[in-house]
Write a structure and sequence with these properties.
By secondary structure, this protein is mainly beta. It has three helices and 19 strands. It folds into two domains: 50 residues, Roll (SH3 type barrels); 214 residues, Fumarylacetoacetate hydrolase, domain 2. The longest helix has 9 residues.
């Protein structure tokens, strides 16, 4: 099933997407709280979608597609290159990506992300999928020039990844019971209706069980954590007025418009 969060009267509401309509999800998982109960049926076009989860942690992978590593002129890591983004950077479908001033080039990065459903520690690779609630789309927006300085200085990739609005997420969570192999998905990213990224996810260097097993080997991962699996080749810059869309057929389309901002670094 496809699970969505959308604006309610006072708190978010949780629904199952059935075609173009939403129906209440019985007994949503605790990591989607707080939420308000609701009844009936509502058209998708009549609601404002929120990020599908409000994550306690947002973890990402860099350098996870060999061709993307090549286009950056880097080398594949021996272990997953894990970094974090501020959870305050998360926005939902149709929200605006705001470009801060004086930071140089800002890039899109379309990615598949997964949502952890329980506390994880020392997860074995062959048990990884049993800890995943489902899958969603994420645009790992990046201030590229700042990121390159962080890399050169041996600093975490945090400032470059964590500006407000730099983590569009959605439009829903496709639950794991409907996914036999997430690596069979094909991810596409469109900029102003022009395809910029396209890749089968089986081209990941570190697969999803590798990622979850590795991260849980050094930390406890709380439920609701979002882990994004890296971007394929084809990344490029954003400018004011652009419309960027991340798409996987089985999940849907994450669409955001790019606007200017009055904030400075």
């Amino acid at each position: 099933m496809k699970v969505c969060r959308f604006k309610g009267r006072k708190l978010p509401r949780i629904g199952i997407l059935r075609g173009n309509y939403l129906e209440p999800l019985p007994s949503p998982p605790s990591f989607l709280a707080p939420y308000e109960p609701w009844f009936g049926r509502v058209a998708l076009e009549d609601v404002v979608l929120l990020p599908p989860v409000d994550p306690p942690l947002l973890l990402c992978l860099g350098w996870n597609y060999p061709k993307h590593v090549d286009e950056l002129g880097d080398k594949l890591p021996q272990k997953p290159a894990v970094f974090s983004k501020s959870v305050t950077s998360v926005i939902g479908p149709e929200e605006e990506i705001k470009l801060p001033n004086n930071v140089g080039q800002i890039d899109y990065e379309g990615e598949l992300a997964f949502i952890v459903k329980d506390y994880c520690r020392n997860v074995k690779k062959d048990e990884a999928y049993s800890h995943i609630f489902g899958y969603t789309l994420l645009n790992d927006v990046t201030a590229r020039e700042i990121e390159l300085r962080e890399i050169e200085q041996g600093l975490p990739w945090f400032v470059s990844k964590s500006f407000d609005t730099f983590a569009p997420m959605g439009p829903c969570i496709l639950t794991s019971d409907e996914v036999s192999d997430p690596h069979s998905f094909v991810l596409q990213l469109y900029l102003n209706d022009e395809k910029k990224q396209e890749s089968s996810l089986d081209r990941m260097f570190f697969k999803i069980p590798d990622i979850l097993s590795y991260i849980s080997s050094f930390m406890t991962i709380p439920p609701g954590t979002v882990i994004s699996t890296g971007t394929p080749p084809g990344v490029g810059s954003l400018k004011e007025g652009d419309v960027v869309e991340v798409y996987i057929q089985e999940i849907g389309r994450l669409r955001n418009r790019v606007v200017g901002s009055d904030s400075d670094l």
